[in-house]
Structure to design on (553 residues):
RNA sequence: GCGCCUGUAGCUCAGUUGGAUAGAGCAACGGACUUCUAAUCCGUAGGUCGGAGGUUCGAAUCCUCUCAGGCGUACCA
């Protein structure tokens, strides 16, 4: 709804500029907001104040000009007032609000979708955890945020691809293979010092047991590199399979799994290094190969190939991002843990060096998640294998609660995951609060159906809803499409979580003050449409977050 | 040292591109079920938006400085 008003206002202002009544201003700068105080109407705009100094007129005089022009659309507005220093406060004709219900009930699960993104290709890459161990709680936040953001962008009209980058090659993988091999040898009574950077979790022992079942003692006699290779391949495959299962259970969907090893296989790492050299963007010094990232705003140049001849992590990552650009994405969104923030400038530099605009690259940094149980923090450390897995969280509190909790904060704010609160089936738990609203509506609709009440939206007098709490509820519904657009534009998926809370609150308030099914048949019919629309929007927004909408609780 | 993030009610947090009297939830206190699910609602109370300057019609929001917490500053990944 806000979008519509904004468009109308821009057209009006453009018209006034053309007529010489207003100075030349950028129509994109014209915006409307929803006032905090309801007495100021449905929407407010500050055009008059923004243009006053350029127009060399008083804000209230400009506001008067705009107001008169808007008033030619007498069917749209109930009231237009100038207030304060020059705000133009606009109240819509309630009929417009009420008509929104027809859109909702007519479009069903498509309500809220828009063409804002104009079909532009966007890629969201997230989780991308090394297949060296199960996903932990930090990955869970990245998974929930990334998956929700991908769904939001799709709803906003972008062509979205969700991708998982698998680091299936390199030192970490060798460490994994070695860790398994050491545990395997222990099974045969050999005491081998555990590797310094080895993985200590119990899952490594489990895999070693399987290796014994498959190979017997054959790996004891094998050459070590070969034995490590065998352990590595099996462990990586098993762990990755576990990751896929956890993500599926978490209702997180990927369109594409991209293996780092394919970059080497397809000579893309080599090619991108050559490309940098050709452009004079790399140089040899002290036996290493350097990339001139400082030329693109990084604080220092970065090493691509180390003195020992092996490549840094950065080198294939450049090739990977070149591949993303080659696939034609207009927007590349990488979701990383905030501890990688130092990596952003060099990646941005790489994007620019590859000939793309650095603006097409967005690194979304997810701050730390800590866990609280029984009121005290749970200590976690990946290296020692003492961490709480995503799977454990899902098993303990359920997929829906976990997903919502991970979305309860802005990405750049640290998150405390309170297990006690997450398990509480009470009003303190926002997930149940929201789902309960949905279940209540389903119950009403079921009662109505049992009584043979089946409203035909387009034959019902919805104008009965054009006042009071009914109208308030409709207004909350109508901000849903705007919320999606703003969440997509600013890459802030948590706004959907907060919107859901707002809508559930508005519904519960309505429910406690009004009865839907009464003797008044026309009003009953209209309100059945209203609550059905609320149910639909709750359902749609929950779906964006990958959370279920139970029909009874 | 330098860089990034955070600092808003007792606690946990929202706050669209700078807008009008800064909002929720929890906790506290007082109310509401013969009525479609009380996992709900209503009311009361609670604030120097960490601090100090600046920018302008107007700042929680932008700039500078400063304090506190977290993270990062690899020829690790």
């Amino acid at each position: 709804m806000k979008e519509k008003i904004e468009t109308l206002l821009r057209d009006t202002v453009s018209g006034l500029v053309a007529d010489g009544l207003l100075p030349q201003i950028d129509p994109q700068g014209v915006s409307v907001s929803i006032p905090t105080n309801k007495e100021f109407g449905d929407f407010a705009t500050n055009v008059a104040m923004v243009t006053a100094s350029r127009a060399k007129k008083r804000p209230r005089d400009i506001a008067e000009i705009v107001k008169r022009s808007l008033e030619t659309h007498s069917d749209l507005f109930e009231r237009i007032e100038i207030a304060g220093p020059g705000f133009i406060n606009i109240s819509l004709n309630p009929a417009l609000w009420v008509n929104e219900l027809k859109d909702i009930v007519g479009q069903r699960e498509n309500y809220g979708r828009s063409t804002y993104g104009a079909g532009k290709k966007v890629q969201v890459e997230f989780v991308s955890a090394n297949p060296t161990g199960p996903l932990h709680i930090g990955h869970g936040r990245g998974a929930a945020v990334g998956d929700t953001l991908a769904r939001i962008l799709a709803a906003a009209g972008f062509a979205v691809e969700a991708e998982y980058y698998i680091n299936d090659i390199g030192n970490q993988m060798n460490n994994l293979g070695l860790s398994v091999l050491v545990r395997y040898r222990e099974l045969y009574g050999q005491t081998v010092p555990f590797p310094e950077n080895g993985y200590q979790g119990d899952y490594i022992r489990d895999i070693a047991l399987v290796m014994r079942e498959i190979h017997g003692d054959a790996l004891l006699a094998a050459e070590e590199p070969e034995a490590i290779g065998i352990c590595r391949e099996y462990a990586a495959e098993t762990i990755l399979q576990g990751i896929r299962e956890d993500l599926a259970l978490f209702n997180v969907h990927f369109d594409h799994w991209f293996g780092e090893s394919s970059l080497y296989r397809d000579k893309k790492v080599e090619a991108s290094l050559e490309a940098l050299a050709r452009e004079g963007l790399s140089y040899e010094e002290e036996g290493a190969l350097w990339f001139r990232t400082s030329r693109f705003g990084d604080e220092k140049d970065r090493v691509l190939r180390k003195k020992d001849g092996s490549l840094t992590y950065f080198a294939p990552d450049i090739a990977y991002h070149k591949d993303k650009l080659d696939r034609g994405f207009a927007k590349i969104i990488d979701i990383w843990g905030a501890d990688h923030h130092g990596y952003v400038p060099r990646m941005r530099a790489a994007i620019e060096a590859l000939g793309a605009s650095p603006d097409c690259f967005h690194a979304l940094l997810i701050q730390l998640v800590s866990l609280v149980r029984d009121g005290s923090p749970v200590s976690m450390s990946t290296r020692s294998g003492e961490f709480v897995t995503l799977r454990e969280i899902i098993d303990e509190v359920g997929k829906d609660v976990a997903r919502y909790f991970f979305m309860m904060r802005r990405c750049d704010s640290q998150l405390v995951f309170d297990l006690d609160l997450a398990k509480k089936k009470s009003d303190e738990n926002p997930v149940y609060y929201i789902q309960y609203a949905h279940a209540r509506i389903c119950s009403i609709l079921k009662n109505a159906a049992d009584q043979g009440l089946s409203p035909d939206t387009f034959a019902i007098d919805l104008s009965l809803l054009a006042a009071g709490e009914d109208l308030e509820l409709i207004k909350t519904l109508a901000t849903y499409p705007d919320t999606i657009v703003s969440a997509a534009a600013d890459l802030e998926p948590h706004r959907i979580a907060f919107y859901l809370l707002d809508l559930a609150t508005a519904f519960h308030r309505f429910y406690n003050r009004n009865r839907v099914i009464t003797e008044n048949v026309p009003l009953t019919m209209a309100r059945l449409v209203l609550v059905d629309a609320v149910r639909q929007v709750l359902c749609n927004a929950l779906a964006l977050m990958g959370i279920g909408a139970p029909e009874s609780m």
User: Anything to note?
Assistant: The first helix of chain A runs from residue 2 to 18.
